[in-house]
Amino acid sequence: MPAKAPIKKSPAAKAAPGKPQAAPAPVPEPVQEVPVPEVPVPEAPVPIPEPVENSVPEASAPPTETPAPETEVSVPAPAAPVSEPEKAPEVVEEPPPEPEALKEEPPSEPIELTVDEIDDTSISLKWKAPEKEGTAALDGYLLEYQKEGQEWIAVNKEPSVSTRYKIQNLNTGDKVTVRVTAVSKAGNSAPRALENFVQIREIVDRPKIRLPRYLRQTFVKHVGEAVNLVIPFQGKPRPQVHWTKNGQPLDPKHASVRNSESDTILFIRTAERKDSGIYELTVQIDTLEDKAKIEIKIAERPGPPKSIKLLDAWGFNAALEWTPPLDDGNSDITGYTVQKADKKTGEWFTVQEHYRQTNCTVSDLIMGNSYFFRVFSENLCGLSEKAAVTKDCAFIKKTGITYTPPEYKDRDFAEPPKFTQALANRATTTGYSTKLFCCVRGSPKPKIVWLKNQMEIREDPKFRCLVNQGVCSLEIRKPCPFDGGVYTCKAINSLGEASVDCRLDVRVPQ
C-alpha cells in the first residue's frame, strides 16, 4: 500500500517536496506543548500499526484510507494551541481574602525577683512567672545585668525555661543589678529589675536566727520586772541587725538593743504595759535576710469583779452571781476564787478555785449560821489584790428533819434446780480411781442423788459423793469392769428436779 508512506512522515514534520501545503513546518510544535487529555480525538480512530515516539501527534493523525486527511491534520493542529491559552486563565481562581489577624498581646513582667545566693564570683536569682501569659505560650526568660555606671549586658541568648538562674564570672566587689524579661511569640514583656544594686562578695554563712524555744510562744512578764532577751544568730560576714515593734522602730527610752557577732540582746529595765506588742527581729546580709517575730505581753494582776449579788438561800445552799472585772490586767481572765466566811468567826474559807463561770452555788452550809461571800479575779499574774464582797448576809434557817427510810421489796431468789455444766463421758483403766463432775444451781439448795444404771448409789465405801458451792463430784475408787455403765446425777428441791447422765467405760489392761 503506497498510501501509508506519506502518513508516517507527516507527524514527524517531514512533508513531501512537491506539496506546497506542507510548507509551514512549525505547526506540530504547539501540538506537543498541549497536554494529552486536551487534544481532540477523531470520531473514528484507527489502530496505529507502528509505535511513534511522540504520543500527541499519534493521537491527532488522520485515517489512513486516503491521502486527503493530511489537510485535516493541519487544520485542527493549530486550533488546539489557540483554544488552550484561552482556558488557562479561567482555571486559576483568586485565593479567598485572609481573615484579620488577632491582635497579639505580650506577657506581663515577671514578679518577685529576689537574690537567692551570692558568692565572690556569681549571683543566683529566683522569680515567679508573670501573672498574665498573653496570647502565646511563654518561651522562657532573658536576663541582663548592669554594673554600676555601665550599660546593660545580656546574660543568655536563648530563653531560659527555669525561674532560677545563676550569673557567673563576675568580679568580686562589683555592684550589679539584674533584670528579667519574659519572652513569647507575641513579644517580650516589660523587664523586672532588682530594687537596689547588689555587691558581689562571698557570703560564707547565710543569716539565720536561732530563736529559743520559750520565745516561740507568748512571752509574759509582770509589770515592773526586767525583760532581757538574748537571741543568737549566725551569718558571715557579720550581718546587720534590726528591731521593730508593731512595724515601727524601737523607742530607745523604753528598750535598748545590744548586738554582737553572734547574738543580739533586747533589754527593758522596768517593763510597763505599753511595752506589750509584737517585736520583729531581722538579720540581713545584703539582700539575704532572716526574720523572727516575738510576742511580748506585760501583764499585772486584774481588778476585782465589778459586782456580786446573793440571789437566794435555801436549805444548806446559797446562790451567787457576779460580773467580770473592768481591768483584766492586760491578760485574759483564767478563773475566779470563791470564799465564804461565818458571821460568828469572820474567817474566810475557799469554796471554789479556778472557777470559770460567773455564777455558782455554795453548798454544805450549817443550819442556823449566817454567811458572807467574796470573789477574786485571776489571770496569769495571779489573784486580784481586792475582792468583791456580798452586802447581804445569807442566813441558813433551821427546819425539822424526819428521816423516812425507803422501802425495798425483798427479791425472790427461789428457782428450780438447773445444771450449768453437764457430766462428760469418761474412760478409765481398772485399778485407777476416777471422778465425775457437774455443776448445779437452785434455791432452796437442792438435794443431790447419784444413780448407776438407774439404781441409787447409797452408802457404798467404793463411792464418795461431795457437793461444794454447787459443784457435784462422784469419786469411784479403784474401779473394775463391773463398775462401768451409765451414771446419773439428780438435783431435787421444792420447786422441781433436774438430772444429767454420762457413761463410764472401765478397760482391762492387756
Automatic annotation (TrEMBL):
<dbReference type="InterPro" id="IPR036179">
    <property type="entry name" value="Ig-like_dom_sf"/>
</dbReference>
<keyword id="KW-0677">Repeat</keyword>
<dbReference type="InterPro" id="IPR036116">
    <property type="entry name" value="FN3_sf"/>
</dbReference>
<dbReference type="InterPro" id="IPR003598">
    <property type="entry name" value="Ig_sub2"/>
</dbReference>
<dbReference type="InterPro" id="IPR050964">
    <property type="entry name" value="Striated_Muscle_Regulatory"/>
</dbReference>
<dbReference type="GO" id="GO:0045214">
    <property type="term" value="P:sarcomere organization"/>
</dbReference>
<dbReference type="GO" id="GO:0031430">
    <property type="term" value="C:M band"/>
</dbReference>
<dbReference type="GO" id="GO:0032982">
    <property type="term" value="C:myosin filament"/>
</dbReference>
<feature type="domain" description="Fibronectin type-III">
    <location>
        <begin position="304"/>
        <end position="399"/>
    </location>
</feature>
<feature type="domain" description="Ig-like">
    <location>
        <begin position="417"/>
        <end position="501"/>
    </location>
</feature>
<dbReference type="InterPro" id="IPR003599">
    <property type="entry name" value="Ig_sub"/>
</dbReference>
<protein>
    <recommendedName>
        <fullName>Myosin-binding protein H</fullName>
    </recommendedName>
</protein>
<dbReference type="GO" id="GO:0007155">
    <property type="term" value="P:cell adhesion"/>
</dbReference>
<keyword id="KW-0130">Cell adhesion</keyword>
<keyword id="KW-0787">Thick filament</keyword>
<dbReference type="Pfam" id="PF07679">
    <property type="entry name" value="I-set"/>
</dbReference>
<dbReference type="InterPro" id="IPR003961">
    <property type="entry name" value="FN3_dom"/>
</dbReference>
<dbReference type="InterPro" id="IPR013098">
    <property type="entry name" value="Ig_I-set"/>
</dbReference>
<feature type="compositionally biased region" description="Low complexity">
    <location>
        <begin position="1"/>
        <end position="22"/>
    </location>
</feature>
<keyword id="KW-0393">Immunoglobulin domain</keyword>
<feature type="compositionally biased region" description="Low complexity">
    <location>
        <begin position="51"/>
        <end position="83"/>
    </location>
</feature>
<feature type="compositionally biased region" description="Pro residues">
    <location>
        <begin position="37"/>
        <end position="50"/>
    </location>
</feature>
<dbReference type="InterPro" id="IPR007110">
    <property type="entry name" value="Ig-like_dom"/>
</dbReference>
<dbReference type="InterPro" id="IPR013783">
    <property type="entry name" value="Ig-like_fold"/>
</dbReference>
<feature type="domain" description="Ig-like">
    <location>
        <begin position="207"/>
        <end position="295"/>
    </location>
</feature>
<keyword id="KW-0514">Muscle protein</keyword>
<comment type="function">
    <text>Binds to myosin; probably involved in interaction with thick myofilaments in the A-band.</text>
</comment>
<comment type="similarity">
    <text>Belongs to the immunoglobulin superfamily. MyBP family.</text>
</comment>
<feature type="region of interest" description="Disordered">
    <location>
        <begin position="1"/>
        <end position="114"/>
    </location>
</feature>
<dbReference type="Pfam" id="PF00041">
    <property type="entry name" value="fn3"/>
</dbReference>
<feature type="domain" description="Fibronectin type-III">
    <location>
        <begin position="106"/>
        <end position="203"/>
    </location>
</feature>
